[in-house]
Design goal:
This protein is α+β, with helices and mostly antiparallel strands. It is 43% helix and 17% strand.
Length: 307
Amino acid sequence: MTDIVKMTENECLESGFDMVYQKEYEVMGSIRSSVTCYQTEDAWAKQDAGMMMYNVQKNEEDKKLDLRFCISGNKYCDNDKCRECAGRNIGICENSKNMISLFSFSFLPSYLQQFKSSDKSSTNKKDKILSFEYKTSFSKVFPVCPRQRDSLSTLLETNYSGAMENIFINSKIHEVLLYSMDCLVEDQDGREVFTCRFLADESGMEKIYLAKDVLLENLGTPITIKELSRRVAINECYLKKGFKEVFGTTIFDFYQQQRMDHAKYLLYQKGLNVTDVANILGYSSISHFSSAFKKQTGIKPCELLLK
């Protein structure tokens, strides 16, 4: 199975994308990680993806657990004099360019031993992998859930240095490892499966991703789950369960988060007023929009304009 990071890196280089950020982190004999970002002129058309590679060879030095991620959505500012983006590894101004971020983590047995279960009789596959007692090497590709995305993106935003930076990076690597281990689900015979079995079918997975795209295309025209299930041709129950498993959140919570993120962009970066943003997002009144915004962000939209 092809390493998604190497494959995407080759695509970036072949397309002439500029590398705009690179950082490596290593604890000798325990863990090695890196992040490389490429600036792109257009939005990345491919889905974000993660990959786990478990290698349990006879030679002790070859044993390791690798995690690879390719995510889009972050931006890069190439203006050294930009006041909004000063001191950041990602861009927040309206002139920021699209960016592809490639993450690589390599864990050695000595690092993973600390997470091994104290229950010596455990037959759980996750415990066996963390202790390198699972006897079969494997590779597994999985969609990037919101929790993984948040942890990975935060690694780009840190302004810590020295010992505090090490503490911060370690905490985020722990989070990425935790959420990635959650991707391992197995049946009674020890085979890896999805909790929602229809997701094992490629067409089932495609419909869930299509549902996400439909939601993003309709941020200003609210769509019901019934209508969404009709648009993507899948049972409502399957749609709700499958969406939660693939993206780690409910359809409603995902939709609201995306709408409020877009609202923040329109208010803070585009300078639109509250009335215009409420209309763009399809709210029947400013008060309904303000209530939804405060529930999601903790502040009123007018307070964001004052920052």
